Each structure stands twice: as C-alpha cells, then as structure tokens.
Task: structure prediction
Amino acid sequence: MLGQRTWQRVTLLTILGYEGAGALVGGALLVGQPDGRTMDMPVSLMRGTFRDFLIPGLILFGLGLLNVAAFVGVLLKRRWDWLGAGVALGGLAVWFFVEILILGELHWLHVMWGFPVLLGIAVALPLLPFRSATLRDAWLVCGVLSSLLYVAMNIIVPRQWPGFDSASRVVSELSAVGAPTRPLWVVLGMAYTLLVTVFGWGVVMAAEHNRRLRVAGILIAIYGAMGVAWPFAPMHLREALAAGGGDLRDTMHIAFGVATEIIYLLALGFAGAALGKAFRLYSLATFVVLLAFGVLAFRDAPRLSTNQPTPLIGVWERINIAVFLVWVIVLALALLRRAHPSRPRARLHQLQPA
Result:
C-alpha cells in the first residue's frame, strides 16, 4: 500500500470541506428556490432537461453530504476513507461533466469548483488499499486507455457536427467557440486529461532509479495536466477568424499548442534515451514522422485565419496525433513488460531424465 503524506492529507481534507460546504449551500438554495432566483440562474439554462432546479438541487445537496462524510472518514482515518473520498469526488466530477453538457458552455466557476475536484482525486490515490506495484500497473494501463479514448473521440465527436470534414479541418475546431461539438469534446477531453496525467505518474513509479525515465514521466504528467486549461483557451471557428472575430483566447490557444508539443517531444526524447536501443530507435523514427507531418500542417495553418481551403490539413494533423498515440501505447506496454519479465523457458536437456 502507498502511504498518504501529510500535505496530501491536508489538501484532501481542505478540498472535501470546501466542496462539501459549497455543495450543501448551493443545493439548499436551489431546493429553497427552485426557480433559481436566489442564485440569479434562469431555468432556461438547463435547456429543458429539468422543469426547475429542484432535482438538481437535491442531487447537489446529496453530493455535499457525501463530501462531508468523506471528510470525516479521512480525518479519522477510517478503513473506508479511500472509498468515501472516491465516491464523493467522483460524484462531483460526473456532476460537472453533465452540467457542461447541459449548459453547452464553460464558465469560470467550473475552474473554481471543478479543478479542486481533480486535484482531490489525485491526492486521494495514495489511500487506495493496493500495493504500489498494482497501482503502477493500473496507471500504465491508463496510457493505453487514453490513446484509445482519443481515437474514439475523433470518430464519435465529428459525427455530431453535420458536414464536418475531418480531412480539411483541424481537431481544435471541434472544441472551437461556437462549435456544436464543443461541450461533448470538452467533457471527453477531461477524461483524456485524467488518464494521461495518471499515466505520467505511472511512468514515474516505473522509473525507480532511472532519472531519464522519471523526467519523461513528469513531462507526460505535465502534458496531461495542461488539458485542464485547454477548454479556457479555445480557438474561434475559421469563419469568425476571417471576419476579425478572434481574441486573446486564440493567441492562448496557439501558445498552449506550442507548449504541449515541446513538452511531449521532450518526453519522447527522455523516454527514448532511458530505455533500450530498440525503443530509442522507435522514438527517433516517431520524432522524424512528427516533424515531417508537423511541417506539412504548419504550412497550411495560416489559411485557417483567412478561411481559405485547407484540403489536407486534417490528414497531416491526425497522422501526427496517431503516431503520438501509438507511441504512448508502446511506451506503456514496454514498461509493463519491463516490470513483469517473462520467466525463461527451461532448456530441453533440463527436462530430460538423467
């Protein structure tokens, strides 16, 4: 089992108390005034999902009670503290995901209340009653799952936008301001963010005394954690950009894109240098492919802001994405195999009777 450090326990208690109090107060206000007047929230926000805020208020109040119960369990170090914290924070995570889907937009309050939930889940992981090796393997498997999820996102989400052409449009347009697919992409993107972040931590755990691999794991975790900020730096649709409708968010989107590419390329380099010759050569080949198709996509990028034809920009970008996703899967499987080396088969002469 992993031991929870003092700072992790204090952080978790703070988050459970903060979220619990907020959910109790918010839920009580919604139940007391189901029309939302007290919180200055019109019922129309829910787009017909509920007649008023009574049911959402009851659910939110119940989540508040769960967080209070989890707070007590963690404070008193009960045997069920890991389960209580997981259910309480997991429930709030589902709440925020569903809320974003219903509202169809993001708000700064989602950062104020949602980010602590993700942080709380991270610091609650050491409470899990499993051996360190078991958790390491679980986090490494999350790397495989993250890549499969991202592939699924690129298949499912575009289908929700009639007429969307994946060959001529970049992935970022699926989460652009005003895009019909933005809410769904953001919700699924948060799940991807969580999977990649814990995968990075799994790489750190698998590194042991390998410093290069440890650095690679930290970089992957940072790359994943940056996904929390992506929804608040969306690009505008190319039609809006051509009409002069861009703003600071578009600049931030470009900056985030450059930063994430630098980070995962560094992670690729450190991981390649940390493992054997075969994986090093594979990582080098991956880098070459990323560079080649990255240049092709970069050449077409200026056409986006002027709404000019970009017939293959989506192809170049998705090849790059696919190559990186496969590299993540290979890294995860390589580390799992490294942690569980197969037993050598007995030689034939050893099996023959004397």
Notes: The chain has two domains: 1-129, 131-340. The two ends are 46 Å apart (CA to CA). Confidence is low (pLDDT under 50) at residues 345-354. The CA atoms of residues 264 and 316 lie 18 Å apart.
